Amino acid sequence: MPNILCVGQAVQDFVFGVDEVPDRAEKFRADRFEAVGGGPAATAAVAITRLGGGASVAVRLGDDGVADLIVAELEGYGVDCRLMRRFAGCASSLSAVILDGKGERLIVNYLDKALPSDAGWLPDVLPEGTGAVLADTRWPDGAGAMLALAKAAGLPAVLDGDRPVPKDTDFLRAASHLAFSAEGLQDFSGSGDHEASLGRVADETGAWCCVTLGAGGVFYVSGEETGTVPAFPVVPVDTLGAGDVWHGAFTLALAEGQGEVNAVRFASAVAALKVQRFGARAGTPKRGEVETFLSEHSMAGDE
Asked: What is the pTM of this model?
């Protein structure tokens, strides 16, 4: 069972379900509520454990009650939290999430700027048994350090390129695989032409690159090869954390030895199952469910 080191952000989400996202400043009443953990790296780690892999997290937290909630939930899912560090005088990250009746969401996140960016406390060798590193963009110093170690060791080094993406090509070169959201790629490139933008990034970094496009599937660039892996047609109920779950599943599949296109298909199946369920992390499927789904469903455009 490969272990994936997930580097970046862990958050406590306070999720309010409403019929429509409010468009004016007044009091509204939610018809659903839950307090759950979030953050790209941490949610990806949970997805990995639910899919049968091992996961550890390297994240920065404040020294507060929110940190207690974050750690307790992650450990409850079997995530190794020994590389978490709490910083006195700092606040842990939290978000208010407004989820509408169509499964779309508005997120307001707080990340304490006083959290130290220095990653010198991280190990200078990967933990024994590490099969891949997955990093988000919320802590570039930590992400760059751990991705570089994985790439040097010949392991998958995957960057979740959601916005904000640092405007630093050297940072991107630390990764062997760059998996952007559509918003993240546009934020980085300044262009809405995802095919041209991704091609430029691939040329400049030498990485295997892709961009997730929701119902439009996943467009990828691998050297001179380009292609699109179609999406599974589903009706979303809750999209919160879907991208993070996708990245966790994609990285796990790579660590297991799957090729990139098969890894994309696997991750897309995991995300398709997740968005059909209300419940953020709790909606993440287990491995058997994914295998059954793949055996019973074809992707849009499949022959």
From this structure: 0.92
Domain range annotation of the chain: 3-20+31-113+127-296
Residue 34: exposure state from Cβ atoms within 10 A (0-12, 13-18, ≥19): middle
- 177-181/208-212 β-pairing: parallel
Q: Which residues contact 105 (CB under 8 A, 6 or more apart)?
A: 21, 97, 98, 99, 238, 239, 240
What CATH number should be reported for the domain whose range is 3-20+31-113+127-296?
3.40.1190.20
- Dig out the tokens for 298 from the structure: 């074809």
Give 34-83 pLDDT, tens digit per residue.
888 999 999 999 999 999 999 999 999 999 999 999 999 999 999 999 99
What is the distance in angstroms between the CA of the first residue and the CA of the last residue of the chain? 33
Q: How far is CA 165 from the centre of its chain?
A: 13
CA-to-CA dists, residue 34 to 37, 97, 238, 245, 281, angstroms: 10, 10, 13, 19, 11
pLDDT in tens, 96-126: 999 888 878 898 999 999 999 999 999 999 9
Nearest to 77 by CA among 243, 248, 236: 248
- What are the residues whose beta carbons fall under 8 Å from the beta carbon of 143, sequence distance 6 or more? 7, 8, 135, 136, 137, 159, 171, 174
